[in-house]
Amino acid sequence: MHFTSERRLDDGVLEREFTLGEIPGILWTPGSASSSAPAPLILIGHPGGLHRMRPRLAARARHSAADGFAAATIELPGSGDRPRSAAAEQARADLHRALEAGEPVGEEIVDRLVLPLVDKAVPEWRTALDALLSLPEIDGPVGYSGGVISIGVRLAVVEPRISAAVLFAGSFVPRTIVEEARQVTIPLHVLLQWDDEGNDRQAALDLFDAFGAKEKTLHANMGGHTGVPQFAGDAAAQFFTRHLS
Amino acid sequence: MHFTSERRLDDGVLEREFTLGEIPGILWTPGSASSSAPAPLILIGHPGGLHRMRPRLAARARHSAADGFAAATIELPGSGDRPRSAAAEQARADLHRALEAGEPVGEEIVDRLVLPLVDKAVPEWRTALDALLSLPEIDGPVGYSGGVISIGVRLAVVEPRISAAVLFAGSFVPRTIVEEARQVTIPLHVLLQWDDEGNDRQAALDLFDAFGAKEKTLHANMGGHTGVPQFAGDAAAQFFTRHLS
Question: Do A118 and A67 contact (CB within 8 A), yes or no?
């Protein structure tokens, strides 16, 4: 892990860009972190494209920092400045073709699009976690928040250091990931935008039903794909405060 | 409205029993109410049987009082000490017979059970609201919380003084009430116990979908029929604080 830039934001949060091999990432630590106890960490997921997503990611990170948490994210394979995969690009083109034609999106396309991404991304997030937890300013329980829900599911199953997760329903989920969801036992807080037209609501409900966790909560709200109400973001933050503090 | 008893609880809340004609009820006002501004009111719904439900109703009322709200409830028609309706008793017996036989509960039984209850209860709650809002210690916006969801739906449609509602999914809902739900435009916070075996989950989701409100939130949790987690109760209280304060 190699820090490449550092700046102090107006709320005192320290924002550092880093690279982890070829993977770019960003770490935000609370303003008080250098002088106080190490902070628990929230891994901030996203759909890919750090530059494009950065304002929203930074806003989530600063919200977390205000609650006393460090936050970090890394670029996804095949997104942003990272090399494209021809197979993933083909799967994405096939998906868009099906959507534009108004056809149902076949499981085969979803599998080709999502499963290789999960297989590649999850070990990267675990490697990032190794590096982040070696920093003196980070310690304690780890949460995972948002992004491609299939990555969140796999991480929750295979990574024992993650002790709570906020997941965003709304992307296509392969059937095998729904099966994996039955093995998830950490507390979950799932956000669903009820009126998100690009979202298969029934698939999201089926995935929520599959989770094996004893504490799982679904918060469904209005506002469209990107219109998560502020009170819903606040509720997700309260979930992390309950489980990571 | 005639007060029949009065006692001060250990948290300073004033608990008063009253009758409204033949209907018994209970009013809780915050400890500071006599010395400060009038409190907004939360009407506390329940499935019927004030005596049996009293500990849980009092706990909800005291939570509301701690947030600065008065809270009140009245007995439902045909419950507690109020006269039984032969037709309602017959419908309830038919319902139980269907459930015990493992048969699907026909719409005709649900209509016979719920619609006369809604038709009779809703005007009573509105009369109670008239009386409660005439008290000097109560003023401002009114919320409705819980109980038989069909009563909450009808109240939200016909009673303009109710400006926000927390509804508990889980009881049988006639099709005509689902149609009425499309006319509900006040902010809604709907609680659903996901693993409530006595609950028709799909019917609850269909009802949530039908609501015409721009701000509607569904919180689904684990814990069985009566096992609403404390954090879910806290979230419902925050909803009222956002909308009634």
Answer: no
In a domain, B92, yes or no: no
Q: What is the pLDDT of residues A91-133, one digit of tens each?
A: 999 999 998 998 888 999 999 999 999 999 999 999 999 999 9
Domain presence at residue A68:
yes
* Residues A36-52 pLDDT 10s: 789 999 999 999 999 99
Q: Which H/E stretch holds residue A3?
A: strand A2-8
Please give the tally of structural domains in chain A: 1
Interface with chain B: mutation pick from A166, A190, A196, A231, highest number of B CBs within 10 Å: A231
Domain range enclosing B36: 2-82+117-244
CB-count burial class (<10 Å; 0-12, 13-18, 19+) for B133: middle
The predicted-structure confidence for A188-208, as pLDDT tens digits, reads as follows 999 999 999 878 899 999 999
Tell me the C-alpha distance between B217 and A170, whole Å: 16
With beta carbons under 8 A apart, name residues in chain A contacting B208: 194, 220
Distance (Å, rounded) from C-alpha A119 to C-alpha A126?
12
- Inform me whether the C-beta atom of residue A215 falls under 8 Å from chain B C-beta atoms: yes
Strands, E assignment, chain B: 2-8, 14-20, 23-29, 39-44, 70-74, 138-145, 162-168, 188-193, 216-221
pLDDT band for position B32 (50/70/90)? Answer: low
Domain CATH for B218: 3.40.50.1820
